[in-house]
Write a structure and sequence with these properties.
Layout: E1 3-6, H1 12-23, E2 29-32, E3 39-43, H2 49-57, E4 62-66, H3 68-72, H4 74-77, E5 83-85, H5 92-101, E6 111-113, E7 116-117, E8 139-140, E9 142-143, H6 154-158, E10 163-164, H7 167-174, E11 179-183, H8 199-208, E12 212-214, H9 229-238, E13 243-249, H10 253-259, H11 265-277, E14 281-288, H12 295-308, E15 313-318, H13 337-348, E16 352-355
Parallel strand pairs: 1-2, 1-3, 3-4, 4-5, 8-11, 11-12, 13-14, 14-15, 15-16
Antiparallel strand pairs: 5-6, 6-7, 9-10
Helix pairs in contact: 7-8, 8-9, 12-13
Amino acid sequence: MRVNWREIPAARNSYAVLEAACGTTGWHLDPVTEPEADITCYSLNSINERRYREEIAGAGCITIAGGPHATACWREVATYTDYVVVGEGEYTLPALLANLESGGNGMIPGVATREGYTPVKSSVRLDAYPAFSEVKGYVEISRGCPFACGYCQTPQIFGHCMRHRMIDEIVQFANRYGQARFVSPNAFAYGSDGIHPRFDKIEHLLRKLTHEIFFGTFPSEVRPEFVCEESLSLITDYCTNTKLHFGAQSGSDAVLEQLHRGHTVADAIRAAELCAGAGITPVIDFIFGFPFETDADQEATVAAIKDLSHIGKIHVHQFIPLPGTPLAGTRARSLLYATEKTCGDLALGGKLTGAWNDPEIRFFRRRSQ
């Protein structure tokens, strides 16, 4: 039985992870640019899903869909694909393939069909699976997030308790190539409960890495309240990157509170100033257009962006109400003329990047490290 992986730009790292996981049980995922027999697998997010929906529905083979959109909207996705892997796929996808090869109907825990869905009863232990195999990927060091930001799918899919890959396992994969890059919802939370940092564990990890280390850059960003002299010294002492990426998200404390972000505007400003003092360029995320954002809130965000643009680089995008999140089903509010003008002016000056008018761009374009 041949199993294929539909190549999708936004799912490159998912391919690396699942190819490695399937390889532990003897399966290989052949990359393809269109559905092919016997089985073709897809990883869908909530933007690219509509690009592949008709292709999947018309495929002349068995189709399996997973990813954040499939997890959040499994009932919808199950109407046009044969099987939906809901949530984490390292265990479920190989188990589904084995079931189908043996003549089963595919209705195992973690897999949804038109007939229904039975959830899995446990989470994936990261150390039980290789970070990647022949297909190179980033090393996922942590999964899950204790925060409940209104726009974010991470805790909805992976849970609110952080899980970490063991240091020796991380080192085994990170030292295979000249550069070590990581996946984490908050790199500075490695080894901790996600709220109280354990910088000693991070230093233990960094000491064991032998090549160029990129830590706290996309896709292993950090939270602003975790930025301090101790955490920054880890970057300057051990790492190659001269930038640190964190999310401020809004210049309004009222908006941050409604989002349940767990930090303030002052935390973001302090983080940026500490970065600059340590010789590190802060790259700061902001989101415009939350449904409860007032004109005053948006103006406060613009003011914060202007101030912080003198310290670091700004990355902005427009709010997307992702399914499965607390803000699912809402609509983004429009941007003020002054907001658009400020973003345009700063972009022309090389101080700002992003997609404040086209929120979909960030799902299809790589960001610099």
